[in-house]
Specification:
The chain is α+β, with helices and mostly antiparallel strands and 278 residues long. The protein contains nine helices and 14 strands. A hairpin with a 5-residue loop joins β4 (53-55) and β5. It starts with 7 loop residues before the first strand and ends in a 9-residue tail after the last helix. This is FAD binding domain-containing protein.
Length: 278
């Protein structure tokens, strides 16, 4: 779609004052998908030359905001990390064409802050930390699970940039379980639940997304019972935080969120499949 209110575009490497109507341009798959009448100038990140994926000396993985979904999926197929299958599972949750995969970015999906954003699910589940860069060069970090505050709301100040997300080595070594459900065969995720089991201390984390307005990552020092897990989810997620749109009513999303959470608990603890689960 043409954005007929845009009067200029500049590269992000050139430092200029941020002004009203500016917006960061990554892959542009959302930006050019619908009218943006409030925008006047785009600040292009595509030529910053950031390495898409970087292994650090401590074993963590830094994912640049400009890393595309295609690049992340390819990395997941090659990586020997225990959590590697989760990368492509979350990429597949886009249900998007190869053209979108080759343009859409990890950072863009996070910054859109849509409940069904699978990069939000991935980075929150693997205990990621977002590196944010202000216009004056100051940086700060915020957990990926806290970066998205609600539908379309994120922890970004005016002109602030999501530079990268870092996944710790401990999380990459976890066994994972993935569950996703939609009202339609090729529809948007209505509930997406990820479980991670830490082989070092036996702790279990269950992350509920898509069914909720923001990600909820619940950590248990030891795998909980079914009743404990259910109570923890209900205590963490208020009635107003179960998402409500054409892709699912809040009551149904809560039911599926609880069901999928129990499925991942059972898979990771070896307690057998949930009755009636497929």
């Amino acid at each position: 779609m043409d954005l007929n209110t845009i009067a200029g575009i500049r590269g992000a490497h050139r430092r200029e004052p941020w002004r009203p109507g500016d917006a960061w341009l990554g892959g542009g798959t959302y930006l050019f998908s619908e009218p943006q009448p409030h925008l006047r100038r785009l600040v292009d990140l595509s030529r910053m030359g950031w390495e898409p994926l970087t292994h650090r000396a401590d074993g963590s993985l830094e994912i640049a905001a400009t890393c595309t979904i295609a690049q992340l999926a390819r990395f997941g197929r090659r990586s020997p990390a225990a959590a590697a299958p989760l990368f492509e599972q979350c990429c597949r949750a886009f249900l998007a064409s190869f053209k979108i995969w080759n343009m859409a970015t990890v950072g863009g999906n996070l910054c859109n802050a849509l409940p069904a954003g699978p990069m939000i699910s991935l980075t929150a589940a693997l205990d990621g930390s977002c590196l944010l860069l202000a216009q004056d060069g100051a940086t700060r970090e915020v957990k990926a699970a806290d970066f998205v505050r609600g539908e379309g709301a994120k922890d970004l100040a005016e002109g602030e940039l999501l530079r990268s997300v870092t996944l710790p080595a401990r999380a990459l070594g976890c066994r994972t379980a993935f569950r996703q459900v939609s009202l339609y065969g090729l529809g948007r995720s209505a509930a997406l639940v990820i479980g991670t089991l830490d082989p070092v201390d036996g702790s279990l984390a269950v992350t509920v997304t898509a069914a909720t307005t923001r990600p909820f990552r619940l950590w248990f020092p030891l795998p909980p019972t079914a009743a404990h897990l259910r109570a923890a989810v209900d205590s963490a997620v208020s009635a107003a935080e179960w998402f409500d749109d054409i892709h699912g009513l809040p009551e149904w999303r809560r039911h599926m969120g609880l069901r999928l959470a129990e499925e991942v608990r059972r898979e990771l603890t070896g307690t057998g499949p949930l009755e009636g689960a497929r």
